[in-house]
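ping. complex inputs:
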Amino acid sequence: MKATNNHYDVVIIGGGVVGCAIARELSKYKVKIAVLEKEADVGWGISCRNSGVVHAGFNYKPGTLRAQLCVEGNKSFAKLCQELDVPYKKIGKVVVAQKKEEIRELKKLKAQGEKNKVDGLQIIDTAELKKLEPNVKGVAALYSPETAITSPYLLTIALAENALRNGVSFFLNTEVKSIAKLRNSDFRINTNQGEFISSYVINSAGLYSDRVAHMVEKDKYRIYPCRGEYYVLDKNASWLVNRLVYPVPQAGSGGLGVHITPTVDGNILLGPSNEYIKQKDNLSTTSQTMKMLSTEAQKFLPLISSRDIIRSYSGIRAKQAPSSEGGYWDFVIEESNSVNNFINLIGIESPGLASSQAIAKKIVGIINKKEKLSPNSNFNPLRKGILRFSEQDEETKKTLIKQDPDYGEIVCRCEQVTKKEILEAINNPLGAKSLISIKYRSRAMMGRCQGGYCLTRIIDILRNEFGLTLEEINLKGDNSYLFIGYRSDEVNKL
Amino acid sequence: MKEREVIIIGGGAAGLAAAVACYEKGIKDILIIERESHLGGILNQCIHDGFGLEKFKRILTGPEYAQQYIDQVMEKKIPFLLNSMVINLTSQKELLVVNREGLHSFHAKVIILALGCRERTRGAISIPGARPAGIYTAGVVQNLINLKNYMIGKRIIVLGSGDIGLIMARRLTLEGAEVLMVAEKLPYSSGLPRNLNQCLYDFDIPLLLNHTVVDIRGNGCLSGVTIAQLGKRGGIVPGSKRKISCDTLLLSVGLIPENELSRQAGIILDARTGGPEVDERGQTNIPGIFTCGNSLQVHDLVDNASLEAEYIIEGVVDYLRGKLKTKEEIKVSLGEGLRYVVPQRLVNHKDTIFSFRVIQPGKNKNLVFEDDKRMIKKKFLSRVNPAEMIRIKLTSQELKSIKSIKVRLK
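pong. complex structure:
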């Protein structure tokens, strides 16, 4: 494959975890790749708003892509996270039956999992459950030792950074407006940032994948947004559970039920709810759902207290199944029958995170079959994340401060994030400078005071060390500025 | 490991007052550890006046009030570390400090926690809706405007009638913003009456009691909120929802004593105050670790935070000289009408200042201290208000030979 200037071999639309995984996987070959992302950073869609679970794969119907790719993805996840320096913890999961009648469902799940080649599944009784999870109430459980957790946003960022390092171009704030097929069979992709020409288009636009598909092929797919709301609990509540704790999934439901998810950082998530909504960008939380989350979680974890809540947020599933039908449709990962070289990824909802690596391999397989790609001998699979001062031992901390005094300045008190880490977060290779970008990379503003202490300090760093103007300081992209200017005296002085 | 007689964590109103009081009692081997680049704590961003009336009999601004103490610290040459944060505290009174010079271990005979408090956030009170830019706690805005000169918006709604919220309503008005209202979900204000008068009524800013924010709109920046009236049982009054466009939502919904280090050290906290359980001189369950100011209980006047710091020093001195007589411990139990009491236990039955907050406003009440059926003391209060801390002193004479103590509002 060859390309010139703004011509690419492959344009990937959507910088979520799947789009970035595809970009990285393709960068193992000599291919000129661009990723177009409409937001100011990668991973701001579905990828940063889920439970962060690397599912083992027992929830999905045997023979489906969801089952196959999830199991495959799960098995290579530890290695991926190691290469990319992303947190990964194989903590295991229990699906807890509240009533005797639900045990039958557990057995079904176990049999299904075994068919999908999930390792280590066991049905355990109350006593064994108590041993694993002393605070969880239930009559029996399905125990899955292979289920793990990761940081979904750090993984997305890491995939993107590694892809970038291996030659992929990233275009942030770049929204695709239309796509035309040219006479020479290339695609012309029009965006708010100009034109891109490409031989292949990979539609990895998540919630908007139906809209992107529609640009070349009318009304083929439809995505129904289905919102899930979450609570985040204080790290002080982390002793409540050791593993992921799930209820038995309800038949026909399009979610796994309100579960209790420890995060790699030591918080606990409660959620998500499961509600079809009209608008794909309606990330609001609602009071009814928030009440429901507490009630549901308390059923199997009575010690949960609303005092421990530090934040709520929501994510939106990209569902193909309409609300009238519920449940799940399988992932669609295929080249369009009518438009050559246009590859669609439709309805990548859960277990999209766990499957991301396997999905990327599948996409590369589709292209490789047609193009006989030649390997990129310069490909480097390794990427280094930001070193977390708070996780180091005392000796290392001393050495770090000696090497760079910025490690001795704590900017975020709750998460003990140092100035050095903030500087590295702002200096990220993708060039994202929104407060949310800094937050995801450094954990500053994620603790119990939610930025009460560090927000003003981070703004100082952006202003003093990076020369950002007041207008340039934003929460999550251009339309979310913080300041309308200086206060009056200061304006008069200018 | 460096050794000190007394280490004070926090160089704000309480910490500075504790340092000066220690010094004046002859304890001079002191170290104040402050994480900011200046002493004075949160007072530095409180540029309004009204401080110092109790303590200095003068009306001062926050920085002026802090300076009174800073001058004394300088004059007495009390050592302090700036830009230094304690990241670890053990029950053995060892602490680990980080700053640009490195990590430093200390041990002290006495540690005084003067950690201040933090603001309750939107997340903690679960306000539903979108999460756009333009939602701040009042203290953050105070910092941005007063210390950085940045202006955050033009049409402002304040949720919660805490004192900082009221003060910021006035401050933003003076800066040319329109403060549309202060909404308070309770049937009464949680700010001081004087702040209601001087910050809201004088500027015609409406205070809507029994009102709260039930929805937030805006994708990038805040575009508006929905306000609703709350009925007697806390539910939304039908038909009372009202959409209001605004670009800033300021939260003043409570302060939480800062006690992460206390937790680390294994100090027992009182769920009612959010601060440690202490005896009558601010000593926690760990001998030699004392606390005062807003990390013990949230004060409505800075003067009281300083006075409390001075008051506990008697306990510090007695502890260091081995004179802290611990008699049998008596729990202070809380009866009806009161949200909390400090101290939570008595061990040496000296003259003791008890601090309280009532649950709801009322008139013509009696605050009663009882030892089983026997009345120890009764104090008539013509007016009580949850916003105003009540402080009452019982003498050692009154506390002598009591077997139990219960306090309630009648």
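The domain at 88-147+224-319 of chain A is CATH 3.30.9.10 (D-Amino Acid Oxidase; Chain A, domain 2).
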